[in-house]
Amino acid sequence: MRWYEKFDEWAAEQLPEMTVLKDEPLSRHCSFRIGGNARRMAFPRTAEELTRAVMFAREQGGAPLLLGNGTNVLFPDEELERLVVATDELTDIKCQGEVLTAQCGVTLARLAVCARSHALTGLEFAHGIPGSVGGAVVMNAGAYGGEIKDVLVGAELMTEDGTVRFFPVEELALGYRRSLLSDRPECAVLSATFRLSQGDEAEIRGRMEELMARRMASQPLEYPSAGSTFKRPEGAFAGTLIDRAGLKGLRFGGAVVSEKHAGFVINTGGATSADVKELIRQIQQRVQQESGILLETEVRMITEEE
Ligand SMILES: Cc1cc2nc3c(=O)[nH]c(=O)nc-3n(C[C@H](O)[C@H](O)[C@H](O)COP(=O)(O)OP(=O)(O)OC[C@H]3O[C@@H](n4cnc5c(N)ncnc54)[C@H](O)[C@@H]3O)c2cc1C
User: What is the b/e burial string over 20-58, where b = at least 16 CB atoms within 10 angstroms of the residue's CB?
Assistant: First the structure.
């Protein structure tokens, strides 16, 4: 029996309420709108269901992949022989004074709006980042001078052996677009706790609107993408280096270097994963020739390996 046949039997018996999709197109679940089918995709409704599904699939060789909002991933064009575990249904938020605790599937937009409704300041920077709380902890997402690290108290993680423990922020090794989970991809973020400060609701709203306007003016939000394709190299900006190398508008298949923001590779229609990877390769090569700097991708390339 294949891992997914065993998973189907187990899930039907043990977690009959959990949605499991067969051969689900991953292009539906990522902001790039690219990707082949996932052999199986599960939608646990509780942290316990998530933990059990991940552990069972791992034991059977299903190499589970946790997925948040899919805004920083590039899936392969081929079938992905893994269990993709969506976190969309884990959406509780609790507010106690200046402390917010959110499950991994809560979007940053919703979390920031929740903070604003309690006149709590600190998450304005995150309002326009299209990811989930889980993905934001994994990536230490940040924008306009703020990052998750600044407001995070800690996160509840499921570790490799299935145990669940609260990790204070110091243990999460958050750095520029990385975390402990970058080295330990078998862990899952179940929830995260943020400490904010009392502020003024109108000011918070004003700051969010200002940042959203800046984002809309500078980013090609009308096209599918995964945001900034590359990490910011030391002492430079990827977009500026790409622009200086004359690469705005460079195309491979349906993948194009945005004219609006050279740091974004966009899908102008029908781009494949192979198109994006080839365009990334060309950008890296040309930028290295021009500036001597090798750009490192920020987008996570999803493969069969965990
Ligand atoms: C238009 C656009 C603008 C963007 N702007 C910004 C920006 O300003 N700043 C910024 O930092 N990023 C930005 N991004 C990138 C992206 O939104 C962030 O990296 C975000 O944190 C990813 O969250 P996600 O839920 O979409 O993660 P996903 O893309 O779903 O996953 C990213 C990685 O995290 C893992 N993961 C996700 N959830 C969990 C979990 N619960 N447990 C364990 N692992 C998990 C995945 O396996 C994957 O390796 C932008 C993206 C787009 C499309």
Answer: bbeebebbebbbbbbbbbbbbbbbbebbebbbbbbebbb
Task: Report the share of the chain in percent with pLDDT over 90.
Answer: 99
Q: What domain range is 240 assigned to?
A: 220-301
DSSP type of residue 276: H
State the pLDDT at residue 306.
Answer: 66
Tokens of 178: 């990385």
79 and 179 both lie in a single domain: no
Q: Which residues are catalytic?
A: 177, 228, 298
Measured in Å, residue 180 CA sits from the centre of ligand 1 at 15
Total structural domains in the chain? 3
**Both 104 and 68 in a single domain?**
no
Q: Is residue 213 part of a domain?
A: no
* CATH at residue 120: 3.30.465.10
Within a domain: residue 276? yes
Q: How far is the CA of 129 from the centre of ligand 1 (A)?
A: 8
Per-residue model confidence as pLDDT tens digits over 49-88: 999 999 999 999 999 999 999 999 999 999 999 999 999 9
Summarize pLDDT for 222-263 with one digit per residue, the tens. Answer: 999 999 999 999 999 999 999 999 999 999 999 999 999 999
Question: Ligand 1 in contact with 263 (CB < 6 A)?
Answer: no
CB atoms inside a 10 Å sphere around CB 305: 7
pTM comes to 0.97
